[in-house]
Amino acid sequence: MSFASNHPARREDAKVMNRAELTRRLVARLHHDEAVIGGIGFANFDLWGAGQRPQNFYMLGSMGLAVPIALGVAIAQPARRVVALEGDGSILMQLGALATVAGRRAANLIVVIWDNGAYQITGGQPTAAAEVADIAAIARGAGIAKSAWAADEGDFEEMIARALTEDGPWLIACRIDQARPDSTTERDPARIRDRFMRGIGARH
Fold first, then answer.
1. 56-85 core/surface letters (b: 16 or more CB in 10 A; e: else)
2. Average pLDDT over residues 169-181
3. Homologous superfamily of domain range 4-199
4. Distance separating alpha carbons of residues 39 and 52, to the nearest angstrom
5. Is the model more confident about 203 or about 95?
6. pLDDT digits (tens, 9 = 90+) for 19-32
7. Does residue 2 surpass a pLDDT of 80?
8. 111-125 per-position pLDDT tens digit
9. Which of 27, 79, 89, 131 could form a disulfide with 127 if both were Cys (CB 3.0 to 4.6 A apart)?
């Protein structure tokens, strides 16, 4: 039985959930200095709102680079779990990164996709995921065998718990609503970079 067979087969079979709530549930399970890379826009706004950990990196204006950056951290620090939080529009810009993740066999990397089928921060224009693209299926096709949709909040937490303790790479896709975040990340790139580098021990 494949990993995906335990979860919804298609995007439309998954429950629509709230990104901020899922982010809080994820952060509550982090207890070992895991690094978290928040993609641009609302993904990192909600990460910021869930609590400012020194191991968090907040993307500012570099669409589609959360997974490549997380992969770099995962390769450099194989003993540390690394989580990338990315939107559907952003990952659709960087699909090649999924094949690279699979090819590098990044066992400590967890990719979480927040899929609301829209470029929400720029006006809500529909992404390809809204109609034809199934990101979990694309990831499996790229070679990430542990790639699936989260059925609901409880399933998401169970998937995260497994991903934090078992080898990956993992891709956990979540259908989310279009609720706006309650907070906004501070916009000081140098400070964000420095705090993160210190948080993962790359700078003293």
1. bbbbbeebbbbbbbbbebbeebeebbbbbb
2. 94
3. Thiamin diphosphate (ThDP)-binding fold, Pyr/PP domains (3.40.50.970)
4. 15
5. 95
6. 999 999 999 999 99
7. no
8. 999 999 888 777 778
9. 89
Distance CA 122, CA 116 (A): 13
Rounded-to-integer distance, Cα 82 and Cα 120, Å: 25
In three state form, how does the secondary structure of 13-69 look? Answer: HCCCECHHHHHHHHHHCCCCCCEEEECCCHHHHHHHHCCCCCCEEECCCCCCCHHHH
Q: Token digits for 177? A: 């609503």
Task: Assess whether pLDDT exceeds 80 at residue 94.
Answer: yes
CA distances from 155 to 6, 29, 152, 167 (A): 10, 14, 5, 18
Please give the structure tokens belonging to residue 57.
Answer: 């990196």
Instruction: Report whether 59 contacts 35 (CB < 8 A).
Output: no
Instruction: Please give the Cα distance from 115 to 180 (Å, whole number).
Output: 14
Q: How far apart are CA 97 and CA 91, in angstroms?
A: 8
Token pair listed for 142: 């790229």
Residue 1 corresponds to which tokens in the numbers above?
Answer: 């039985």
Instruction: Print the SS3 string covering 121-153.
Output: HHCCEECHHHCCCCHHHHHHHHCCCEEEECCCH
Strand pairing of 118-119 and 125-126? Answer: antiparallel
Q: Which residue in the block uniquely carries the two structure tokens 């039985």?
A: 1
In this structure, what token pair is assigned to residue 54? 């020194």
Q: Are 37 and 73 in contact (CB under 8 A)?
A: yes
